[in-house]
Amino acid sequence: MTEFLLAASVFILLMVAVGLLRVLRGPADIDRMMAAQLLGTGGIAALLLLGTATALPGAVDVALTLALLAAFAAVMFVHSGGSS
Amino acid sequence: MSLALLADAALVLLVLGLAFWINAASRAFPAVVGYVAFGLLLALAWLRLSAGDVAMTEAAVGSGVTGAVLIAASVRLRSAETEAPPPALPLRLLALLLSGLVTAALAGLVLWTTGPAPSLADQAVQHLPGLGMGNAVTGVLIAYRALDTLLEKVVLLLALMGIWSLAKDRYWGGIPGPSRIQPTNGALILLARLLPPIGIVVAVYILWVGATDPGGAFQGGAILAAMWLLVMLAGLRDAPAISRPWVRLCVTVGPAAFIAVGLTGFALPNGFLSYPDSIAKPLIIAVESVLTLSIAVILGLLVAGPPERQP
Q1: Residue A54 within a domain
Q2: Is residue A84 domain-resident?
Q3: Backbone angles phi, psi at B240, to 5 degrees
Q4: Is the CB of A62 less than 8 angstroms away from the CB of B214?
Q5: Are A9 and B7 an interchain contact pair (Cβ–Cβ within 8 Å)?
């Protein structure tokens, strides 16, 4: 089971790396922002899988914090008129 | 364990690659978005190093609140940004070489030092039961190195004063932000109504769990601040005028309570900022709760900015 969880987290990390390309290349700022949001989701998933597989203390709490604040960057972006 | 090693290697490559790219980015906004993503990956890396407290602070403060502030700043500065010609290639290569050398030297120090690193971890853990604490990091922050933590909170207060001092004279004591935001964006309003109740519960939980597991006052305060800012950004509530007595009270009560508890240390046990053994845990929880409130209000007002309107 541990092996499976680890393999899944490696897979998700690789997918996160693919998503990272959009952050790097853009072209528009909104693309980068949305890619960063996707990366947040993938990162939290990888964190939870890694945390469960290797019994890291506090992994769930860190994931909870990240999930709560993930949307915050996008809110700030929309609010400061970055999408226009 | 080879799969775990593979995951770690992927993480390290991602962190290094992203760090390189952030420095190479030509404009501020892509670099800032890269930084937000970097914070998330870094939190993951800290967690893999069993530094849960650092991971959580990175998640709450580094990636969450700071990222939001930087995004707002870079969007605001976008029109003022000029396309400066990049420095010449030899200069860039030299900078790369020098920073690479610093990294290599640091890595060498960690990898090739002989013997175990000097550590006070054992002594720190030994006295934790007396404080009723299970989390060594919280114990160190609130008990052993309480003076540092106190000064940290005072620094936050100074930062807030620095931002307020940017206000024009006629707006002193006024309301932060350019104008009252009209609640128009439906999705944002929905988020600002749904998320804060959950966020407040999580923030209290993070504060409480800080006694035994990763968490604590700063992380809880950062989450509370984010929830407050969300309500302000959606236009559901306006930011408070900074001359309001409750604002001043909330901002100062944390450091004040910390100092008060510290001073009673003179009367009861044996010195400034020492806790009497019998009520150490309730005292620490009380100080942390009040600190959380102060940190939340200070961080929220830091992001809201200097007053720009009459109250």
Answers
A1: yes
A2: no
A3: -75, 150
A4: yes
A5: yes
Q: Is the whole model's pTM more than 0.80, yes or no?
A: yes
Interface test with B, best of A22, A79, A83 (most B CBs within 10 A): A79
- Inter-CA distances, B305 with A5, B193, B227, Å: 44, 23, 16
* B145 at A interface, C-beta within 8 A: no
| Binding-face residues of B in 33-62 toward A, CB within 8 A | 33-34, 36-37, 40-41, 43-44, 47-48, 50, 52-53, 55-56, 59-60
Q: Which tokens belong to A33?
A: 């922002």
Cα(B247)–Cα(B257) distance, rounded to whole angstroms?
Answer: 16
pLDDT digits (tens, 9 = 90+) for B241-284: 888 888 889 888 888 887 887 777 777 666 666 666 666 777 77
Total domain count, chain A: 1
Contacts of B56 in chain A (CB under 8 A): 58, 61-62, 65
Distance from CA of B266 to the nearest CA of A (A): 36
Is residue A71 in a domain?
yes
Q: Quote the domain boundaries for residue A9.
A: 2-79
Provide the 8-state DSSP code for B116. Answer: P
Strand partners, B175: B309
Q: Is B240 helix (H, G, I), strand (E, B) or coil?
A: coil
Quick: pLDDT tens for A21-59.
887 777 888 888 888 888 888 888 988 888 888 777 778
